[in-house]
Backbone:
């Protein structure tokens, strides 16, 4: 019998890679997608199966993490062996503008799914993965951060994810459910959402190289992140649910890079060298050959409270899951730039608010 998985957030970066992985392992994969006025399935088009096909193994359901009746019905229909809760309002900056919605989807959404499992009496059948995050660590308490480092969330997003983290631990302890938190550090790819900083940078470098954009406006260039490749991180999610005993795991590379450095690499990868001038809000990056200003700091992208440094210690995942990252952040940047050079040949530039 093929295993059945349900993925929320199936149309997102991780949802797309996880669907591919589970299909390659012979799973039947159900995904929850939101209704949208335009197509939002671009990342999963290549695995989409028409509902009229016989032997359909990839099945999409309309749904939303803010709608419990919908979630209960979808879980009842799929009877999943594994649920991966990846859906979220996942943008930290945007969470300051939509804090209530973020709490509803990211915190209560996780609770709704756990309750759906209980209401349907699937506690002993269904394993649960929660997309927890390094943003839980927030204000630096310890470096590098492990499963035991205290949390100090610094945004409505992180505070919502903190609730989700603890409700998962509580349902594991209270009801003996197989629930695990993956505390994942930033992971990127050519499928990364266009407003997260790495993709914003690689798209802009490609567009500026091709003469389709003049300037890249960014926020805090000093922030440091532990960036890995999303395709490798979804493997870790699956490995967590294959363990006999549920637990919480950090997935990270153990290496942190400044946003400024990532900008330099991306422009280097399109054959441009940056010459930085000024400091803080005045800081600007000039193309060393033409002398044109191509990068500028815009305070609109600063966050009311920032997370300065995230660097993870993935030793527990190495030892217990046998999980390891493979792609270096330098290679990740190059891969994203190369893909964006292809995308940008035909793309129209969308302006970020
Ligand atoms: P994305 O933003 O790419 O994808 C989020 C997904 O959630 C999309 O499919 C989106 O749908 C869906 N979604 C948003 N709100 C709702 C809702 N109310 N109901 C149902 N679906 C909804 O995120 P990633 O793939 O990068 O991340 C996956 C998860 O992992 C998220 O929970 C994120 O917070 C978490 N995480 C991500 C990390 C990273 O570095 N990528 C690191 C640590 C944690 P739509 O396509 O319609 O917008
Ligand atoms: P993050 O990712 O907040 O870590 O959350 P993001 O790429 O948005 O920011 C990383 C760092 O870059 C700084 N920054 C900018 N960020 C954006 N988005 N746009 C800019 O113009 C810009 N300039 C500088 C940010 O201030 C920050 O310090 C991601 C998401 O995927 C979360 O869902 C996930 O939980 C965490 O990673 C781990």
Residues:
């Amino acid at each position: 019998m093929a295993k059945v998985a349900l993925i929320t957030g199936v149309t997102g970066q991780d949802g797309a890679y996880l669907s591919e992985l589970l299909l390659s392992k012979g799973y039947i994969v159900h995904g929850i997608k939101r209704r949208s006025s335009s197509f939002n399935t671009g990342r999963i088009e290549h695995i989409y199966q028409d509902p009229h096909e016989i032997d359909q193994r990839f099945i999409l359901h309309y749904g939303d993490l803010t709608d419990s009746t919908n979630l209960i019905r979808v879980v009842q229909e799929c009877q999943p062996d594994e649920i991966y809760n990846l859906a979220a309002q996942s943008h930290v900056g945007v969470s300051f503008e939509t804090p209530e919605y973020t709490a509803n989807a990211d915190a209560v959404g996780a609770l709704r799914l756990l309750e759906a499992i209980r209401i349907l009496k699937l506690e002993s059948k269904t394993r649960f993965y929660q997309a927890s995050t390094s943003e839980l660590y927030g204000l630096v308490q310890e470096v590098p951060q492990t499963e035991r480092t205290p949390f100090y969330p610094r945004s409505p997003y992180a505070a919502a994810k903190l609730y989700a983290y603890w409700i998962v631990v509580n349902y594991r302890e209270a009801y003996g459910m197989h629930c695990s938190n993956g505390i994942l550090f930033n992971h990127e790819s050519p499928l990364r959402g266009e407003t997260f900083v790495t993709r914003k940078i690689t798209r802009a470098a490609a567009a500026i190289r091709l003469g389709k954009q003049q300037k890249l406006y960014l926020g805090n260039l000093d922030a440091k992140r532990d960036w890995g490749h999303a395709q490798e991180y979804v493997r870790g999610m699956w490995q967590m649910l294959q363990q006999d005993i549920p637990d919480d795991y950090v997935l990270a590379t153990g290496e942190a890079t400044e946003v400024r450095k990532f900008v330099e690499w991306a422009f280097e990868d399109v054959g441009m060298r940056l010459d930085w001038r000024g400091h803080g809000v005045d800081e600007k990056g000039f193309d060393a050959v033409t002398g044109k200003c191509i990068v500028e700091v815009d305070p609109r992208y600063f966050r009311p409270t920032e997370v300065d440094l995230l660097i993870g210690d993935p030793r527990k995942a190495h030892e217990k899951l046998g999980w390891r990252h493979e792609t270096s952040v330098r290679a990740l940047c190059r891969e994203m730039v190369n893909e964006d050079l292809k995308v940008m040949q035909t793309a129209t530039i969308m302006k970020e608010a």
Q: What stands out?
A: The pocket of guanosine-5'-diphosphate-rhamnose (ligand 2) is lined by residues 90, 92-93, 133-135, 186, 195-197, 200, 218-220, 223, 225, 259, 301, 303, 306-307 (CB under 6 Å). The chain has two domains: 4-188+228-251, 197-225+257-307+329-346.
